[in-house]
Amino acid sequence: ATKPYDDQNIFAKILRDEIPSSRVYEDEWAIAFHDINAQAPIHILVIPRGPYVSWDDFSANASADEIAGFIRAVGTVARDAGLVPRGYRLLANTGRQAGQEVPHLHVHLFAGQPLGPMLA
Ligand code: 5GP
Protein backbone atom coordinates (compact mmCIF):
# COMPACT_ATOMS: atom_id res chain seq x y z
CA ALA A 1 0.00 0.00 0.00
CA THR A 2 1.23 3.47 -0.85
CA LYS A 3 1.12 6.15 1.81
CA PRO A 4 -1.49 8.86 1.31
CA TYR A 5 -0.62 11.88 -0.78
CA ASP A 6 0.60 14.94 1.17
CA ASP A 7 -0.71 18.01 -0.64
CA GLN A 8 1.77 20.20 1.25
CA ASN A 9 4.80 18.60 -0.44
CA ILE A 10 7.07 20.99 -2.30
CA PHE A 11 6.07 19.86 -5.79
CA ALA A 12 2.37 20.22 -4.94
CA LYS A 13 3.16 23.81 -4.01
CA ILE A 14 5.06 24.28 -7.29
CA LEU A 15 2.05 22.88 -9.19
CA ARG A 16 -0.22 25.39 -7.47
CA ASP A 17 2.30 28.20 -8.09
CA GLU A 18 2.59 28.79 -4.35
CA ILE A 19 6.35 28.67 -4.68
CA PRO A 20 8.30 29.65 -7.78
CA SER A 21 9.99 27.34 -10.26
CA SER A 22 11.48 27.82 -13.68
CA ARG A 23 8.91 26.03 -15.76
CA VAL A 24 9.96 24.83 -19.17
CA TYR A 25 6.73 23.03 -20.12
CA GLU A 26 3.14 22.54 -19.10
CA ASP A 27 0.08 20.86 -20.54
CA GLU A 28 -3.10 19.19 -19.33
CA TRP A 29 -1.22 16.28 -17.76
CA ALA A 30 2.20 17.44 -16.65
CA ILE A 31 4.51 20.29 -15.87
CA ALA A 32 8.31 20.42 -16.15
CA PHE A 33 10.81 22.71 -14.45
CA HIS A 34 14.52 22.94 -13.82
CA ASP A 35 15.90 21.04 -10.85
CA ILE A 36 17.10 23.51 -8.22
CA ASN A 37 20.30 21.50 -7.71
CA ALA A 38 21.29 20.39 -11.22
CA GLN A 39 23.35 17.21 -11.47
CA ALA A 40 23.99 17.59 -15.23
CA PRO A 41 24.14 20.53 -17.69
CA ILE A 42 20.46 19.88 -18.36
CA HIS A 43 18.46 18.58 -15.40
CA ILE A 44 14.70 18.92 -15.69
CA LEU A 45 11.98 17.40 -13.51
CA VAL A 46 8.72 16.31 -15.11
CA ILE A 47 5.73 15.73 -12.83
CA PRO A 48 2.12 14.71 -13.43
CA ARG A 49 -0.59 17.15 -12.36
CA GLY A 50 -2.37 14.37 -10.47
CA PRO A 51 -1.69 13.59 -6.78
CA TYR A 52 0.61 10.59 -7.04
CA VAL A 53 3.25 9.89 -4.43
CA SER A 54 5.60 7.90 -6.63
CA TRP A 55 6.09 5.87 -9.78
CA ASP A 56 4.61 2.95 -7.87
CA ASP A 57 1.45 4.86 -6.93
CA PHE A 58 1.11 6.34 -10.43
CA SER A 59 1.61 3.10 -12.34
CA ALA A 60 -0.89 1.30 -10.11
CA ASN A 61 -3.56 3.98 -9.72
CA ALA A 62 -3.48 6.59 -12.48
CA SER A 63 -5.93 6.37 -15.38
CA ALA A 64 -4.78 5.27 -18.81
CA ASP A 65 -5.25 8.88 -20.01
CA GLU A 66 -3.07 10.23 -17.20
CA ILE A 67 -0.36 7.66 -17.87
CA ALA A 68 -0.36 8.27 -21.60
CA GLY A 69 -0.47 12.03 -21.14
CA PHE A 70 2.40 12.02 -18.69
CA ILE A 71 4.66 9.76 -20.74
CA ARG A 72 3.96 11.77 -23.86
CA ALA A 73 4.78 14.97 -21.97
CA VAL A 74 8.15 13.58 -20.85
CA GLY A 75 9.05 12.81 -24.43
CA THR A 76 7.87 16.22 -25.61
CA VAL A 77 9.96 18.04 -22.99
CA ALA A 78 13.08 16.22 -24.18
CA ARG A 79 12.32 16.81 -27.85
CA ASP A 80 11.52 20.49 -27.26
CA ALA A 81 14.84 20.84 -25.42
CA GLY A 82 16.60 19.70 -28.60
CA LEU A 83 17.83 16.45 -27.07
CA VAL A 84 16.73 14.19 -29.90
CA PRO A 85 18.66 12.46 -31.40
CA ARG A 86 21.60 13.48 -29.16
CA GLY A 87 20.15 11.65 -26.19
CA TYR A 88 19.06 11.92 -22.59
CA ARG A 89 18.45 9.85 -19.47
CA LEU A 90 15.27 9.41 -17.43
CA LEU A 91 15.26 8.42 -13.76
CA ALA A 92 12.47 8.00 -11.23
CA ASN A 93 13.64 7.39 -7.67
CA THR A 94 10.91 5.37 -6.01
CA GLY A 95 10.77 4.92 -2.27
CA ARG A 96 13.24 5.05 0.56
CA GLN A 97 16.04 2.83 -0.69
CA ALA A 98 16.17 4.76 -3.96
CA GLY A 99 16.50 8.00 -2.03
CA GLN A 100 13.22 9.56 -3.15
CA GLU A 101 13.01 12.88 -1.30
CA VAL A 102 9.85 14.54 -2.59
CA PRO A 103 6.60 12.51 -2.29
CA HIS A 104 5.11 13.59 -5.63
CA LEU A 105 6.11 11.49 -8.66
CA HIS A 106 8.90 13.13 -10.60
CA VAL A 107 10.95 11.91 -13.52
CA HIS A 108 14.45 13.35 -13.74
CA LEU A 109 15.63 14.19 -17.26
CA PHE A 110 19.42 14.44 -17.50
CA ALA A 111 21.32 15.54 -20.60
CA GLY A 112 23.91 17.85 -22.03
CA GLN A 113 27.03 15.74 -21.54
CA PRO A 114 28.04 12.11 -21.93
CA LEU A 115 26.36 10.55 -18.89
CA GLY A 116 28.36 7.37 -18.44
CA PRO A 117 26.94 4.01 -17.45
CA MET A 118 25.34 5.31 -14.22
CA LEU A 119 24.68 8.74 -12.74
CA ALA A 120 26.47 8.58 -9.39
P1 5GP B 1 14.50 12.82 -5.55
O1 5GP B 1 15.71 12.67 -4.69
O2 5GP B 1 13.23 12.84 -4.74
O3 5GP B 1 14.46 11.87 -6.69
O4 5GP B 1 14.66 14.22 -6.25
C1 5GP B 1 14.19 15.41 -5.72
C2 5GP B 1 14.79 16.48 -6.58
O5 5GP B 1 14.04 17.66 -6.39
C3 5GP B 1 16.24 16.81 -6.24
O6 5GP B 1 17.03 16.66 -7.41
C4 5GP B 1 16.18 18.27 -5.76
O7 5GP B 1 17.30 19.02 -6.18
C5 5GP B 1 14.90 18.76 -6.38
N1 5GP B 1 14.22 19.78 -5.62
C6 5GP B 1 13.94 19.74 -4.29
N2 5GP B 1 13.28 20.84 -3.91
C7 5GP B 1 13.14 21.60 -5.03
C8 5GP B 1 12.52 22.87 -5.26
O8 5GP B 1 11.98 23.52 -4.38
N3 5GP B 1 12.56 23.34 -6.54
C9 5GP B 1 13.15 22.64 -7.55
N4 5GP B 1 13.12 23.19 -8.77
N5 5GP B 1 13.73 21.43 -7.36
C10 5GP B 1 13.73 20.93 -6.11
Number of E-state strands: 5
CATH topology term: HIT family, subunit A
CATH superfamily: HIT-like
Radius of gyration: 14 Å
Tell me the name of the CATH class.
Alpha Beta
What is the H/E string? HEEEHHEE
CATH architecture: 2-Layer Sandwich
Q: How much is the average pLDDT? A: 96
Detail the poorly predicted runs.
none
How much of the residues is beta strand, in percent? 15-25%
Give the biggest beta sheet: 5 strands, antiparallel
Overall geometry comes to globular
Compute the separation of the termini in Å: 29 Å
Helix content: 25-40%
Plain-language structure description:
The chain has 120 residues and is of the alpha+beta class. It has one domain: HIT family, subunit A. Helix content is 25%, strand content 20%. The protein has 3 helices and 5 strands; from the N terminus they run αβββααββ. It has helices spanning 10-15, 55-61, 64-80; strands spanning 23-26, 30-34, 42-48, 89-91, 107-111. A 5-stranded antiparallel β-sheet has the order 1-2-3-5-4, covered by helices on one side. A hairpin with a 7-residue loop joins strand 2 and strand 3. It is globular, with a radius of gyration of 14 Å. The N and C termini lie far apart (29 Å). 26% of the residues are buried.
